[in-house]
Design brief:
Chain lengths: 494, 635
């Protein structure tokens, strides 16, 4: 084991890098220095997080790399961090995507580069901090702090209707946040503890659980998002700059899923069992409804945003099955979606940077000019469709297998996504990539440049690796998830 | 060796995919074709080992997914069934690779094409050699992907792109059933690898399972779900609409994917799972019915199509129907036998058609052909051989397999087997008719293409005719050589439990029945001769006189139009409804927009009170004071 606080270093390294950037003067010449510093910081963080993975003990189901310091003398609030098999991959996803985001913003962000990079690095710190928190209060602080850089990214560097988008985003999350804070206070009053680790189990009476569950649900269902709390997502995506969409789809949505696993399933098992039918119903509606809505979209980003909601429907089904296949499937689906949807947004960014429009109608026949782009886009499309051998399949299929143990209706609902995802993605791909070029403005469009290749090719390789060798990811999370399932089953067996 | 057979095509795909355009295109063509011929030789070696009763074996590669007790390996299952499929896939694929060098001569993306063909071959080999249902699903969807890529190979053509999407989506409808079926099998048997399932099949014979709040016999339900997948892939009635459209792809693709190999995957699935299907009585009736119905339905459409490839496509659909009703009545070996012979003669027919199309400079309409025998005698002879095989002319390969299917249907105890038998004979008549119609319209009679085109017609180069020779040998001799092993005297030793053999001994049809089936073929040919020789107008007059029937056949029973109305339009309508009404009006209207509207409205009313006039405030204060005092006095 490592005897220095690796996890804290990973959390705060991006912030330190961001603060250093503040001291670089911003003008034409030095703006490259800013970008390079930000990139190197985020790459350094990614390398450290890989060390975290290498050092991670697969056979230990509980929290590892723990660090604990008391905050207040009179209260049981701690700076308590650590990771288990669930948070490990969420952290890796954050550290993997951030450098790609910085690279993706290399040339399309021209105003306030310094502040932009600082926002992203700060965002990285709070995302990692949130996934690593064991103390609930600490978790809450990070959870809410994520919104600050995200607001700024959408609000300052966003598109034309950014004010409406951030307002919608704000309204939805506000309600959830308030309720979650109340729930946290209730938990503290009841148990005098704020530790996620020691509250795993069944510590609250049934009625309290119901209240707490609903309060957390309000927050996480908006975040993930579940139908009908999803309408902020398409708007936020459309207005956010490319890198903002990448982080939003890649990591921020997973905060909801992570919260469901940790809080709802982990701490409130009886209420969870009570609400399973509700979740299943909402998820199935999400899959069918949003897949159809995706089909009708005319804006590429909106289409992918709606497909995210459908994919997250699979995740919520998986989580609330609370069996091995369901939970592992949900985790795989989250990791896969983190990579695939991030990559799809990056792909949209590539043509947006060139043509400054996201209208599907504008494009068509890109394969004639951009064969390499067409190829990588194809790989991500197949990942999104869930073709066996790509990342999307493993999660989706495990959830279907898990769902059969609960109810055949849920299986049918979940499997319906198999058909619909193929319809809207292939239809999108056909309209953008295939055919002949009819729009004269596209005649001179250039294929991927070196920077874009560096961004997209690692993602394409990850999609395949996740599909062929999913055990690399399933093995480390297995015992942590088993622990959650055991706790859940013990609580409900009584 | 089995490893090499499977992974060499993958390597040749990766070679084309990653290093494309690095070298001269000829290098890619030689390497991919060479590799496939090597694979084909290996496959035949393995096949002969199994003819000599080699033991089945399982080659473990590595663990794919393990989640709880859901454990899936990458592995290769070698037994007689796999060996048979290996020779079918690699032989046809090798021929098609070689043929494509000539056929795609003028195309600019030759390397991509060869790469896709190899990729397809890899997925198909994975499919047939899998030892569990999930790896099979990997191959299953993989061939679907390759098919999608190859149908849409000419991606500048709008029709090709639409056909590609249609193929993928319709197949996905089938896969929906397949995926649920796998989940169900895991739920029931606790495993999805074949040996574990088959060992327990007996135990669940009379078992019931609850599905969608109804009780079903377990094995019937599971087999039914898997069969939905098979229907999609093998283009059976209801999910058949993608196959004719798939003809938008280059002709070698049609031969390899949409005739010889991929579309037979459904038949393979049923044969592979035969230890389970054996006990699924109701599902077997369903399979028999769908198979028979597809056979005659597709044949009825093939009668009137004018596109040479479409005729063969519907004929494929119809022959697949034969294979399914054979499987439905429990004659899995006859079904696989027909699959094998069909692979040879149908690939031969398609590649010959391709040779005609190549000679005619991409003309596919038979109305603009005719009299080509003199110009391209070799191709015409090959087409004749293929046609003789498909109608089951004695001693050609199709004769053995089709007779065997009819025999099994005749002697089966399955409730609707006799219906299938009758349909089988009628379909044989129709098959003879459309096959001869194709021959007459294309190769005989007067030429209708115009003298200029006709003079330019030329026989195809050697790279295209050599594959035709190889396939012709298969079409003629595969029946007579292998009948004893597949369906005859040695079948028990040959199959060695790779599939279930239900019928104990080989029975021949009674003489009268056998004559009837041959008579049907003769009648079909005879009618065709009556209509299409000497008198040009007879066909036209007939089509007028039989109008409703003719139109139904010509327009493919209007299935595409009906599906378009029922599914496509409804889905788009629903999509827009959910988006505009659901999301924008209802959820946003009541949610964020509603709340902000409420707040701004209520703040507007509140702001009215702040009028700024002193007497308003004074009046309000006075009123308040009165209320307060009243309350104070009473309490």
């Amino acid at each position: 084991m490592i005897d220095w606080p690796l996890l804290s270093v990973i959390i705060f390294l991006p912030l330190v890098g961001g603060l250093i950037i503040l001291f670089i003067k911003e003008d034409e010449v030095t703006s490259n220095n800013i970008k390079w510093s930000a990139l190197l910081t985020s790459i350094g963080t990614f390398i450290l997080s890989l060390i975290l993975w290498l050092q991670f003990d697969y056979l230990n189901p509980s929290y590892q790399f723990q660090e604990k310091f008391r905050w207040f003398d009179d209260f049981n609030f701690f700076y308590h961090i650590g990771i288990d098999g669930v948070s490990l991959f969420m952290i890796l996803l954050s550290t993997f995507l951030t450098p790609l985001c910085i690279l993706a913003s290399w040339s399309n962000i021209q105003k306030r580069v310094k502040e932009y990079m600082l926002s992203f690095l700060f965002l990285e710190t709070v995302m990692i901090g949130m996934f690593a928190s064991i103390d609930i209060l600490l978790f809450y602080i990070f959870f809410e702090a994520v919104l600050i850089p995200m607001y700024l990214i959408i609000g300052i560097w966003g598109g034309a209707r950014r004010i409406y988008a951030s307002f919608k985003f704000f309204l939805y999350t506000l309600l959830g946040s308030v309720l979650m804070l109340i729930a946290i206070i209730v938990m503290y009053i009841n148990t005098n503890s704020m530790s996620i680790e020691s509250l795993q189990g069944n510590f609250f009476s049934f009625n309290t659980q119901i209240f707490l569950w609903l309060a957390f649900f309000a927050s996480f269902a908006v975040k993930i998002p579940m139908w009908p709390f999803h309408t902020w997502l398409p708007d936020a995506h459309v207005e956010a700059p490319t890198a903002g969409s990448v982080i939003l789809a890649g990591v921020l949505l997973k905060m909801g899923g992570y919260g469901f696993i940790r809080f709802s399933v982990g701490m409130l098992p009886e209420a969870t069992e009570f609400f399973v039918p509700l979740i299943m119903m909402l998820s199935i509606i999400a899959i069918i409804y949003t897949s159809l809505v995706a089909l009708a979209q005319t804006d590429i980003k909106k289409l992918i945003a709606y497909s995210s909601v459908a994919h997250m429907g699979i995740v919520t089904i998986g989580i609330f099955l609370v069996n091995q296949q369901g939970l592992e499937g949900a985790m795989m689906q989250m990791i896969s979606h983190g990579i695939v949807s991030a990559a799809l947004f990056l792909c949209v960014g590539v043509i947006y940077d060139r043509m400054h429009t996201r209208e599907i109608k504008f494009y068509g026949g890109l394969v004639q000019r951009m064969p390499l782009y067409a190829t990588v886009f194809m790989i991500f499309m197949l990942g999104s469709v869930g073709l066996p051998g790509t990342s999307g399949f493993v999660g989706e299929f495990l959830v279907i297998v898990g769902a059969f143990q609960l109810s055949s209706f849920v299986v049918i609902g979940a499997a319906f996504g198999i058909i619909l995802s193929a319809v809207y993605m292939l239809y999108l791909y056909k309209r953008i990539i295939f055919g002949t070029i009819t729009n004269n403005k596209l005649l001179e469009i250039l294929d991927l440049n070196t920077r874009e290749k560096i961004i997209l090719i690692p993602l394409a390789i990850s999609v395949i690796i996740l599909g062929i060798f999913p055990n690399i990811f399933l093995d480390p999370m297995r015992l942590s998830l088993e622990l959650i399932i055991t706790n859940y089953e013990m609580a409900n067996a009584k | 060796m089995a490893n090499a057979i499977i992974f060499l095509p993958l390597l040749s795909f990766l070679f084309c995919f990653l290093l494309g355009n690095r070298f001269n295109f000829k290098i890619y063509q030689i390497i991919t074709t060479g590799i496939l011929f090597a694979c084909s030789i290996f496959s035949w070696i393995i096949f002969f080992q199994y003819l000599g009763n080699k033991e089945p074996e399982i080659i473990y590669i590595f663990n794919w997914i393990s989640s709880g007790n859901f454990i899936v390996d990458w592995s290769i299952r070698l037994d007689t069934l796999t060996a048979v499929m290996f020779i079918v896939v690699t032989t046809v694929s090798a021929c098609v690779h070689l043929y494509s060098i000539g056929y795609m001569e003028e195309d600019t993306s030759k390397v991509r094409f060869m790469g896709y063909l190899s990729l397809f071959t890899f997925f198909m080999l994975v499919l047939v050699s899998s030892n569990n249902l999930l790896q099979m699903f990997f191959g299953w969807e993989g061939v679907g992907l390759a098919s999608y890529l190859l149908i849409g190979f000419w991606h500048h053509k709008e029709t090709a792109n639409n056909a590609a999407i249609k193929a993928f989506v319709v197949n996905r409808v089938g896969d929906f059933g397949y995926a649920i079926g796998i989940a169900g099998i895991f739920f029931v048997f606790g495993s999805i690898s074949f040996d574990n399932i088959f060992e327990q099949a007996d135990l669940f014979k009379n078992h019931q399972i609850e599905f969608l709040s109804l009780n079903f016999p377990t094995l019937d339900l599971l087999c039914f779900l898997l069969f939905i997948g098979a229907m999609g892939k093998s283009a059976q009635l209801g999910l058949h609409t993608w196959l004719p459209d798939a003809m938008e792809g280059p002709t070698p693709v049609s031969a390899l994917i949409h005739a010889a190999t991929m579309v037979t995957a459904g038949v393979f699935l049923v044969a592979r799972m035969s230890p389970l299907y054996e006990f699924a009585n109701f599902t077997n009736l369903f399979i028999t019915f769908i198979g028979a119905a597809t056979a005659i339905f597709a044949a009825s459409i093939a009668l009137t199509q004018n596109d040479i490839k479409r005729v063969i496509a519907y004929s494929t659909c119809s022959q697949l129907g034969y294979m399914f009703f054979a499987a439905g009545v429990g004659a899995y070996n006859a079904s696989i036998f027909h699959l094998t012979t069909h692979a040879f003669f149908k690939a031969l027919l398609f590649l010959s058609a391709g040779s005609v199309i190549h000679a005619m400079h991409h003309e596919q309409d038979m109305r603009k052909m005719g009299g080509l025998f003199k110009k391209i005698p070799l191709t015409a002879t090959m087409m004749w051989i293929g046609s003789l095989a498909i109608i089951g002319f004695p001693y050609f390969s199709g004769y053995y397999s089709k007779e065997s299917i009819l025999e099994n249907a005749y002697y089966s105890s399955n409730g609707i087997a006799f219906f299938a038998y009758i349909v089988g004979i009628l379909t044989a008549l129709l098959t003879a008719f459309y096959s001869w119609r194709l021959l007459f319209l294309t190769f005989h009679g007067a030429n209708r293409s115009g003298i200029e085109t006709y003079n330019k017609v030329h026989e195809s180069p050697f790279v295209m005719t050599i594959p035709l020779f190889i396939l012709a040998i298969g079409s003629i001799f595969s029946g007579i050589l292998f009948a004893d092993y597949f369906i005859g005297y040695y079948k028990k030793e040959f199959w060695d439990n790779a599939i279930i053999l239900t019928q104990s001994s080989h029975k021949y049809l009674p003489l009268t029945q056998s004559l009837i089936s041959k008579l049907a073929v003769a009648i079909g040919i005879f009618i065709c001769i009556l209509i299409y020789t000497n008198n040009k107008d007879r066909a036209k007059n007939l089509s007028y006189n039989l109008d409703p029937l003719y139109s139904i056949s010509k327009n493919k029973w209007y299935v595409d139009e009906i599906y378009h109305k029922i599914f496509v339009l409804t889905f788009f309508k629903l999509a827009n409804f959910f988006w505009k009404r659901g999301d924008e009006k209802t959820i946003d209207g009541l949610g964020p927009n509603g709340i902000s509207w409420l707040i701004s409205k209520s703040s507007f009313y509140v702001s009215i009170f702040q009028s700024g006039y002193l007497f308003h405030y004074a009046f309000a204060m006075l009123g308040g004071l009165v209320i307060f005092l009243t309350w104070f006095i009473y309490y």
